[in-house]
């Protein structure tokens, strides 16, 4: 049988998917054990026991200086920034994307501006954001916003522009005004695409969050990673990176589930 | 019979390509006009002009003696070959949309007693096209024939002065096509519709129409084929109306409401 025709069942697909991850973990463990056999105080490839020990302190013991549980405080601070940045971006993508997509005069006026902003590397704007908004939370949220909003706006606008012309004509023969067309035809059909755009923007949003936290912050997952790097604390960095990956996966699954739940018509015929 | 729609010396040009030239037509109320012609003869262009989706380069169109605005409006209903229904609305939602737009300018949604009244009207309309049992399906769950039935119901609930059909049955298989012909003939009589239908099926044009228009180029320049446009070369009034299709005894459809 040709490889392109091989169908993998559900159980086998979980098994196959787990295989490379387990293999990678095994390779790491063997390498770490090897290094520790040669040098018991090796810091580059910590053993799981070492990671658990280091993380336990951050997870369960209040920081003597601030009195907070550092790991949870970091997580909360980062998620708050990420949530704010994603929220503001999503809202403006919906609003601006809708206007750009439905109304040709608005598209002609603001389309080039959005495109222009979209091609600027956001990190290049970080100094401006620090100068304009200070080193506090605003500049970090703004970096995420400037980083992902233009892409999302363009994606939503392009999706609406690509709605079949027949559909737009049909809506008008049914008496729809520009406003009604926007509200009842374009908006609902933009929603699944918007969620898709948020999912695609999650990766860049994390990049901008970690960058902003690495450069100027006193709390957050990215801040902690860059802080403990000075002490070669791989036993903290690795669990933190794994935690970030886990958070990203959970958010992505939640968005995907929401889209299926709220917009079944956008996800194939069998709903 | 008075002319409901009159086209006076319509020209359509894209750059130096002439698509339609000197098209002058009078369409009487209550007629069923079929438009046929070879590919690229401007059949769909003519329909889009009547619809208001396109503006003619020259000439004027009058509906009831009043010049048409160059945009689509609720006085002209349309059914396209595809993409006529909204994928995000159920069958009932699709049909309600026209009523909601008219009665709720700001929210485009109805509530309470007005919604119930509108739903009743929509359900009656859907029953008339044979979708009475499929109110809560989404278009993606329906066959092509059912989607076209929905598109017709959606258009007719606005009681348009003129119904435009752009190859509405072109993508359907022959059995379902026959059912749809029966349906559109019945609706045409029941609702006293004026219909303009573009088709590439000559049999369909003559079966359904009371008048058949053929668009083609009168003149042809072999060195510049785009320099001359098409116009109505034949205009055949069909005096002999075929008897309305008798109740079908044997049908391909599985149930008596034609849920194909």
UniProtKB/TrEMBL annotation, chain A:
Major localization class: membrane
UniProt GO BP: transmembrane transport
Entry-linked CDD domains: TM_PBP2
ABC transmembrane type-1 domain segment(s): 79-259
TM spans (from-to): 82-103, 110-135, 141-163, 197-216, 236-255
Gene source species: Sphingobium boeckii
Designated name of the protein: NitT/TauT family transport system permease protein
Gene3D superfamilies: MetI-like
Similarity comment: Belongs to the binding-protein-dependent transport system permease family.
Pfam families: BPD_transp_1
Keyword Aminoacyl-tRNA synthetase appears in the UniProt entry: no
Lipid bilayer topology: Multi-pass membrane protein
Cellular location(s): Cell membrane
Gene Ontology CC annotations of this record: plasma membrane
Keywords attached to this entry: Cell membrane, Membrane, Transmembrane, Transmembrane helix, Transport
Keyword GTP-binding attached: no
TrEMBL record, chain B:
Keywords on record: ATP-binding, Nucleotide-binding, Transport
All residue ranges annotated as the ABC transporter domain in the record: 5-242
Alphabetized InterPro entries for the sequence: AAA+_ATPase, ABC_SmlMolc_Importer, ABC_transporter-like_ATP-bd, ABC_transporter-like_CS, P-loop_NTPase
Single GO molecular function: ATP hydrolysis activity
Domain of life: Bacteria
PANTHER family assigned to the protein according to its UniProt record, in alphabetical order: BICARBONATE TRANSPORT ATP-BINDING PROTEIN CMPC, SPERMIDINE/PUTRESCINE IMPORT ATP-BINDING PROTEIN POTA
Protein name in the entry: NitT/TauT family transport system ATP-binding protein
